[in-house]
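[job 4471] stage=fold_predict status=RUNNING
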Amino acid sequence: MGRFGTTFVGACLALSIMRVSAQELEPRAYSPAPVGTNFIGLTYTRLSGQVLVDPSIPITDVQAQINSASIGYVHVFNLAGHGASFGLLAPFVSGDISGKVFDAPNQVHRAGIGDARFRLSVNLLGGPALTPEEFAHRTPGTIVGMSLTVVAPTGQYEPAHLVNIGTHRWAFKPEFGISQPFGNWFAEVMTGVWLFTDNTSFLGNRRRAQAPLAELQLHGGYTFRPGLWLAADVGFSSGGATSVNGVTGDDRQNNARYGLTLSVPITRDWSAKLAVSNGFVVRAGGNYKAISLTLQYRWFNR
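[job 4471] inference complete, writing structure tokens
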């Protein structure tokens, strides 16, 4: 593989994983749970489609197939009388990316540990800290919550290499959300903004910066019985233009995605969740299909 081909796939893989983490659709993100509840889950995700790369690189026909397996943990606790949760997610990522550079086909495969994610969430209104017994007798109502998601640069990244799994920078997303039940129906709206530090080792020793990326998510669904629900999801993202050594690229995002999420109880403490999504308005970097399957176990601290 020549010098131009290696540069192309390196930018492609790093950018694809970053944009996936920034455009997830997450219904029921502010659903309450009793204090002392713990969740552990294993998620498989497959992504396929076009991936935006550095606009200064002359590439066409970009295609990516990215698979990831993630293990996550969430703990619900009492924060000054409010229901709160802390979660973490550790992914392993495998990616195959192909495209043409100056009409010459190029492809690459990489696999390794991805960037870890942490999330702190608190329900400010309508989600008090309750014991399992109190929670079972509560009347569902409006929930107003906020959260902070942090993506740490723990993923596989080697400055001397042009193909990397990790993004080699921090990312932060403060978010505000509202969830409203209507009998068995529910509606949700969430809005937040991703903030990024610079990657000072992009394609060797270049500095890559990214502008803030705003997000809006809308979800609506129906709960058939506890643990069994179906949601329709729509997400919008705007901003996030990148620059390399101060030169801004033509990659500002104005994207929209749609999807469906189904949660199914298996036993009293085990459940599964299937989510599918696709891009339908794509300005940059969002034209990919995603499917994920999560197996989750729940237990209570006594």
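[job 4471] summary: Residues 1-22, 52-58 have pLDDT under 50 and may be disordered.
[job 4471] exit 0
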